[in-house]
User: Fold this.
Amino acid sequence: MNRIKSNNQNTLNRTLPLLLLLASTVLLNTGCAHPPPPVERDPCLDEGPSQSAAYEDCVVDRNDERDAALKAILGTGPGLYTQARLADPGEFPLQDSDYPDIPGPMIYHTANTISAAEQQALPFKMKVRWNYTSRKLLPRPRDLVRMNEMEVLLKSAATENGLAKWVCTVTGEQRREWVFYARSDADFMTRMQTILAATGPYPVEWTGRKDPAHKVDGTSSANASGEILITPKLCVE
Assistant:
C-alpha cells in the first residue's frame, strides 16, 4: 500500500497566494459592477465659465444665500425671502387697468386697502427707494438681507403715534421701493432717518409729496364701504 504523507503547512503556503488572488479578483469585479456616482454639475456654470465675473458673482450669491438661510433657521437674522399671504382672487379683484404701464416684470406687495379716513389723516405719499444691481429680477442675497432688516425698522417706526402707514412695496427694474402714507413729510423723514442711523447707512433715496388722490374738496376715491383699494398702479403713481 502506497502511503502519502501530507504536509499541511506546505499546502497552506502554496494555496494562500491563490486564495488572495481570487479574493482580489472578486472584489475588483464587484467594484466594477457599480459605476461611480455622477459628478454634480455646478449650476453657477450656467451664468458663465469658471473664473468669469458672472460665475464669481453667482458663487458669492450662493454663499450669501446659504449664510442668510442658516441665520434665519437659528433665529439670528431675518428670512431672506419674506412670506406673503396669497389673497383670494375674488377678495380684491384687479383689472388690467389697475397695473401701471411698465414693460418689465414687477413684484407688488400691498396692504390691500386703506380707509378713506386714514388717507385723509395721512395726506403725504412717501417713497423710500433702494437701487440695486442684479442679473435677476430680485436683488442679490446680500442686498436682500439688508433690505429686509431695514424694512422691519421702517414698518415698526411707521406705526408710532400714527406717523404713517405702509401701503406697498415694489420690486423690479433694479429698484425696490417702500411706499407709505404719512401725516407729515418732514416728520416722516426725520423719524425714519433717525431710526435707521443706528444700523446704517443704507443706500436709499427719499421722496415725498402731497398725494394727488386728495382732491381740493377733501374727498377721495373710496368705495361705498369707505375703503380705497391699493392697486399696483396707485402704488407707483
Observations:
- The chain has six helices and seven strands.
